[in-house]
Amino acid sequence: MALYPDAIWHAGVSAGHYSGGPWRIVWHTTEGHSATGAMHTFTVKKDWPHFTVDENHVYQHIDTSFAARALKHPAGGVETNRMHAVQIELVGQAAHPKPPALLARAAKLARWIESTHGIPKLWPNGYPPPAAGGHDPGRHNRNAAVWKTTGGHYGHCHVPGNIHWDPGTIDVLALMS
User: Fold this and answer.
1) pLDDT tens-digit profile of 92-146?
2) Is 86 helix (H, G, I), strand (E, B) or coil?
3) pTM given for the model
4) Minimal CA–CA distance to 47: which of 62, 25, 63, 64?
5) Residue 3 domain flag
6) Bond into 167 cis (ω within 30)
7) For the chain, what is the domain count?
8) How many helices (H) and strands (E) does the chain have?
9) Domain with 82 in it: what CATH number?
10) Domain limits at 103?
């Protein structure tokens, strides 16, 4: 079992067993203002991540030994959720900077995940581009070959077959400290 000791358990539904590939962390944003609202949306859409992080808490929904469900996986495309992707939803919006307290809490969680699953502290497809005038800036590197072969940190904006641009504007240096 891989349960983060500082998390509040709030059970979600997994996508079953992983199918392989190197371990990675995938960063998302909830596009909302509260963990409660995000968890309601996960329940309705059945798209659970492993974790939801706000400024005050880390909520764990799925044991990281099992796959989450927050990524799209188009038929015939590259495996996403089940390719050892530990998924974290940050309460906030892609267009806005993330609060320092949230980033500190997320960074501590990331160090635990890296240690638990042997994930390197690198961004194989580059850092997520910040918002341009409050909107999706484009320029997202969703290189499928890199995704399949290289562990590390990815934004939702880096995942093959996905169209989202989160986490968007984020202080990567604070997140990686």
Assistant:
1) 999 999 999 999 999 999 999 999 999 999 999 999 999 999 999 999 999 999 9
2) strand
3) 0.98
4) 62
5) no
6) yes
7) 1
8) 4, 6
9) 3.40.80.10
10) 8-175
CA–CA distance, 73 with 3 (Å, rounded to integer): 25
Decide if 142 is inside a domain. Answer: yes
Residue 52, classed as helix, strand or coil, is: strand
- Which pair of structure tokens corresponds to residue 123? 């961004």
Whether residue 77 lies inside any domain: the answer is yes
- Whether residue 1 is contained in a domain is answered as no
Q: For residue 26, what are its two tokens?
A: 């995938």
DSSP character at residue 75: T
The CA distance from 155 to 5, in Å, is 24
| Rounded-to-integer distance, Cα 51 and Cα 145, Å | 26
**DSSP code, position 124:** T
Q: What integer pLDDT is reported at residue 160 of this predicted model? A: 97
Question: For the stretch 100-137, what's the b/e string if a residue is b when 16 or more beta carbons lie within 10 angstroms of its beta carbon?
Answer: eebbebbbebbebbbeebebeeebbbbbbbbbeeeebb
